[in-house]
Amino acid sequence: MADAPPAPPLLLASTSPQRRAILEQLRIPFDVVSPRYHEQDVEKGDAVELVRRHAREKARSVAGDAGERPVLGVDTAVVLGGRIYGKPPDATEAERMLEALSGKTHLVLSGLCLVTPGWELVEHEATRVTFRELTPRDLASYLATGEWQGRAGGYAIQGHGAALVHAIEGDYLNVVGLPGALLVRLLAERFAGLYGFG
Questions:
Q1: Are 112 and 182 contacting, i.e. CB atoms less than 8 angstroms apart?
Q2: Is 75 considered catalytic here?
Q3: What count of other Cβ atoms lies within 10 Å of the Cβ of residue 106?
Q4: Domain residue ranges of the chain, discontinuous segments joined by +
Q5: d(CA 35, CA 19)
Q6: 155 to each of 23, 54, 87, 103, how far by Cα in Å?
Q7: Cβ-proximal residues to 197 (8 Å cutoff; 6+ apart), any chain
Q8: What is the greatest pairwise CA distance in the chain?
Q9: At residue 192, what are phi and psi to the nearest 5 degrees?
């Protein structure tokens, strides 16, 4: 009996090292391409619609390079009290974000889009993260790590940012940067067995 052909690598429309690491952890083959869509962060609006749109546009922006392969686009935002927290441009803004999150529960929302020549699928995932009360020393110590750079909400849970967190409810990988459970479910449904799921 002949071996099944290898699964075609997903085309990941992201330069995020965290998203690459999650795909490697899940043993999903992939290639990386920088999306030709650059999202504009906004502080107000429908956060679910925003992350879904950004994920879709990232995937669509490179779909022409993929051939028959599925394209994966992902976008993540932090939401608290109706406000959307994107990536802080500097340490001052990162500190302001972390002060706002201190002692509170926020949502980490990710939009995920899979695009093939025959269909397009957009979903989203939400994870609840509760921060402990942060002191000025906590904030100064964390900002000094530089981890806040390029991170929605100004923190990285997979790094020293884990020390800021009191509790998490939902998909941990979603907080890192890619909703792994959602992706596995979609691959199992749409490509049963091909990527090792379903």
A1: yes
A2: yes
A3: 20
A4: 10-190
A5: 14
A6: 21, 20, 9, 15
A7: 184, 185, 187, 188
A8: 64
A9: -50, 120
Q: Which of 4, 68, 73 is nearest to 32 (CA)?
A: 73
CATH 3.40.1830.10 fits 10-190, yes or no: no
Instruction: Kindly give, in sequence order, each residue whose CB lies less than 8 Å from that of residue 31, ignoring residues fewer than 6 positions away.
Output: 9, 10, 11, 12
Distances (CA, A) of 167 to 60, 96, 170: 35, 21, 10
98 closest CA partner among 44, 66, 145: 145
pLDDT value for 1: 44
pLDDT score for 146: 97
Which regions of the chain are under pLDDT 50? 1-2
- pLDDT per position as a tens digit, 4-39: 678 899 999 999 999 999 999 999 999 999 999 987
> What CA–CA distance (Å, rounded) separates 96 from 104?
14
Q: Catalytic one among 3, 31, 75, 90?
A: 75
Q: How many CB atoms sit inside 10 A of residue 196's CB?
A: 14
| pLDDT for residue 43 | 83
pTM over 0.90: yes
Backbone CA torsion sign across 22, 24, 30, 31: positive
